[in-house]
Design a protein that fits this description.
Number of strands: 12
Order of helices and strands: EEEEEHEEEEEEHEH
Number of domains: 2
Strand order of the largest sheet: 1-2-5-4-3-6
CATH class of the largest domain: Mainly Beta
Structural class: alpha+beta
Largest sheet: 6 strands, antiparallel, barrel
Radius of gyration: 18 Å
Number of helices: 3
Length: 206
Amino acid sequence: MFTGIVEELGEIREVASAGDSARLTIHGPLVTSDAVHGASISVNGVCLTVVDVTDGTFTADVIKETLDRSGLGGLAPGARVNLERPVRVSDRLGGHIVQGHVDGTGTILSREPGERWDVVTVSLPSGLARYVADKGSITVDGISLTVVEAGADRFSVALIPTTLALTTLGHKGVGDVVNLEVDVVAKYVERMLTVQNGVLESEEAL
């Protein structure tokens, strides 16, 4: 589990294609300082398993499903990525509960620069819109953000100077693709209500 508080801006060093998968080599001295084989690291919001660690870089295998459903398939050497290690039980939950399981991708539709922050609008897949609410939480490229305004096919977020300086969203522009993970609590609530309503309907039919 992660919190969506990016620890380090890493860099893709190599992308080795292997047919229906790929092996990424990523430079991130901070997140690899205590990483071992089998550890988890969030890369742009995608939970990846460390295969090897060498001199501040780590490698991770990415299967076709992940490449197809996230923006990792479009990464090339030199690309910057948001990195975060899993939260420890004793840590403060600075952002919100993030699983590292990408629900879909969005495209940056606009950026409105302010004196100290930018308001960014991102497209929202129709299947995810019901989980996004004004002032609710959403994860964009692994970053825990508060929704400013939620629409049927888009949402907006405000990026403070720290987010602009220390994450990929400070460098991405209109047309760029971002990974999205909606609040897992909203999905569980929907699931419970769906099951409950189904049970009630079945009981009423008896």
